[in-house]
Every structure is written in structure tokens, then in C-alpha cells.
Amino acid sequence: MSSNPDARLVPWKEFLTELDSLLDQPVSLTALGGFVMIAKYGFARPTNDIDYFTLVPVQAAGHLESLAGQNSELARRFGLHLHAAAITTLPEDYEERLEELLPGEFKNLKILVLDPYDLILSKLERNIDRDRHDVKYLARTLNLDAAILRERYFTEFRPICIGRPEYHDQTLEFWLEEYFPPPSK
Amino acid sequence: MLKDARLKRGWTQPEAALRLGVSQAYLSMLESGLRPLGDALASKLVRVYKEPTLLPLPAEAEVNQPLHPDDLASALSGLGYPGFAYLKRGPKRNPALVLLTALAQGDLEPRLVEALPWLQFRFWQMNAEPLLRNWLVRTAKLNDLQNRLGFVTTLARKVSEHQASASARTSVLRDLELELENSKLAKEDTLCRNLSSRERQWVSQHRPVEARFWNLLTDLTAEHLTHVQ
Predict the structure, then answer these.
(1) What are the φ/ψ torsions at residue A30 (nearest 5 degrees)?
(2) Count of other CB atoms within 10 angstroms of residue A60
(3) Across the interface, do B111 and A174 touch by the CB < 8 Å criterion?
(4) Backbone angles phi, psi at A24, to 5 degrees
(5) What's the pLDDT tens digit per position in A46-84?
(6) Nearest-CA residue of chain A relative to B85?
(7) For residues B41 and B30, what is the distance between their CA atoms, to the nearest angstrom?
(8) Helix or strand holding residue B97 (H, E)
(9) Is the peptide bond preceding residue A57 cis, with omega within 30 degrees of 0?
(10) Does A79 contact chain B (CB < 8 Å)?
(11) A87, CA 20 to 30 Å: which among A43, A161, B104, B105?
């Protein structure tokens, strides 16, 4: 694992470039998880898959799996693969805030990623150690605004989240107190 | 142990010696411990026997040394951990050594911590081999790592229980848990993480029963182990 952001992205770029060359139509996927932490936000942490949760066109799913899924030739060669992630709760308007990763880099492949606040909220329901580790990094490195996260949580996420909202309220407050920088005066 | 590995494969000494590129006499001395196993021959031995648990182990105190996360990731990749398959594979190390050296660390990145139960799951047979098991338990106790080792063993055992025809592995891991329970430390510890007081408080309230049993501040469960199967 290199601490150099570009070096960390090299195996991923090679993998995605190869995948792009094998596609015979435009494919767009929305990624989340560890890969986004590395590729978009420069976090030096290990992951061997790209979790994606939307795919356009959806009919490409089978073909994409055969090309780049866990049992594919690309996975064997690169040790990396695409993974269709389990559905996770996201803020209602997340699509309006998606950003393209490596724009102009590929011919057929388009990778969209969540903005940092949406990425943080995607981890709220699970809230295991690696999630908190990521939240701490994002909040402090990007100097995120706790007020934005809180507002987005209550207006777009809490009304649709799975499980007990009161429990998630506690998790949110814990994260805000522990990981977010204090508001500037 | 070397002799047992050879016999398990149904090889005679001459056959094994030929595969290793040494004389039968030299192999005999290696098997009886009269000659140490050098690095070059150790690497070849792992390739021929396909068993990294045969690699030599250091004295117990040597596990308590700082370990760079990249080195641990490379070591895990070298042992075949799927989560780090894309990394350049490091030299093969004895999985027992990798496990205890990692458990001895004060602050590991969470994805590295999540790989530790995989070591116990994948190389469960090292816990059935008397010399290795004794080394593991003795070294863990000497370095106050028995709770951490017990917990990762518990997680590996829980994954094993969900698999059909895995009764031997489950039984071996359970035996080790029982042995470690006898020397379980009362003092609370983390699972190789440096937590703030607020994080410690949070995790203490929300940790699973297995972590509570081993007096560890962690919320890692078997369900979170993506690559242990």
C-alpha cells in the first residue's frame, strides 16, 4: 500500500482501462465504499473491489459481472473486481450531487461517486470500525461542515432509513462530536 | 513437523530431498532439528510442500515489534488473503508469526484487523500441530495477547460453523479457544486499535457478546468478515 495517491490508483486505472476496452456499449455505474475513499478522496487504505449500487443500462449487469466480477479473468489478473453492493440507504437527492471519477479517461465506462456527505451517510446504518475510520478521515481531511451533514441527515436520510431512527440519531451525534472539526468562529 | 509434513504427503525422504534439491542426509538433519532452515531453503520448502506453517518461528519476544502496515498487507497477500490479492506479494512468512505480530500492534488500520480471523480460518491446522500450537499459546501469553488471539479464533470458529463438512476445523479452533479461556485477562483491551475515550465508551456499549467475553473493545463480528469463507 503506497501512501502516494497516484501510485495507489495505478492498479485500479489499469484494471478499469482494460475493462473499458472490453465494453461494447456505454456503461455507467455509481460507486461507493473503499474504492471511492481511495480514488476520489486519497485515503491510503486497502480494498480489492469497487462496490457499485446502480448500473446503466441495467441489462449490462450480467456482461459486466462476466468481464470484471470476482470470478472473471480480469479479477484473476489484477486481483481487483467489481462488486454489486447490497442496497444501502442513501440520502434521497444523492443523484443530484454525484461526481464523475476520472472524467474523459475512458471511452465506454463512466464511474460516478457520492459526494463526501452522502458517502458518510451511506455508512451510518452499519457503523463498524472501518466505517468510523473512513468518516474520521473524510471529516478532518476535507474539513466538512457538521451542520450540512446534520441537515442532510434529518431532511433526506432519516425519513427513509432502515432500523430505529433514534439509534441512528445517536450514531450521528457520536460521529459529529468525535470526528468533525469544531465549527469555526 | 517437517517430517510429519513429508509423511502426510506420502513422500519418502529420498523423494522429498530430490524435490527440495538437497541430499537425503541433509533432509534427515533438518527433520531432526540438527540443522537450521535457512531463508532460501525455507522459501523452496514452502513452494514444494505448499505449507507456510513449516517456516521457522522466532523466539517469543520477537513478535512484540513495530510492524509497518504495508509489510503486514504484503505478508497477508503473500499468504493468499483475498482482500489484498492486488498487492505485490511479500515473502512467505509463517502465518502463526504474522498473526501474533499483527495482534501485538497497538493501532492497525481496520481492514488489516479484519484479515486476522482469516489467518486462523485459513491456516487452522497450525492449531492442531502440537509444536505450532504450543508456540502460539506460549507466545500469546508471554505478550498478553491471549484475549486478542482468543477473539479472532472465536470469529474464525463462528464462520467455520456455518460451513458443512468443516467439523475438524471447528473442533480445533474451539479447542484453542477453551485453552485460551483458562488464561483470559481481566483487563479490558482493544483489538489492535488506538481508540479515543469517546470511542471506547461507544464501542463498550455496542460491542457483541463475543467481544464482551474476551474483554475487548471492538464491534467486529463474523458477519463483517468479507473474505473469510
Answers:
(1) -105, 120
(2) 18
(3) no
(4) -110, 10
(5) 788 899 988 889 888 999 999 999 999 999 999 899 999
(6) A79
(7) 11
(8) helix B95-103
(9) yes
(10) yes
(11) A43
Pick from B197, B200, B87, B98: which is nearest to B149 by CA?
B98
pTM for the model: 0.87
d(CA B220, CA B20): 42
What is the ipTM metric for this complex? 0.82
Q: Of A2, A45, A174, which is closest to B111 when you measure between CB atoms?
A: A45
Length of chain A: 185
What is the Cα–Cα distance from B32 to A41, expressed in whole angstroms? 54
Distance from CA of A154 to the nearest CA of B (A): 22
Test B87 with A178 for CB contact under 8 angstroms. Answer: no
Q: Smallest Cβ distance to A129: which of B83, B84, B110?
A: B110
- Using the structure block, give the residue that is written with the C-alpha cell 509423511: B7
The Cα–Cα gap between A88 and A71 comes to: 24
Sign, CA dihedral A58-A62-A64-A68, equals positive
Are B208 and B149 in contact by the 8 Å Cβ rule? The answer is: no
Percent of chain A with pLDDT over 90: 68
Among residues B137, B132, B176, B133, the alpha carbon closest in space to that of B153 is found at: B176
Q: Which residues of A touch B193 (CB under 8 A)?
A: 129
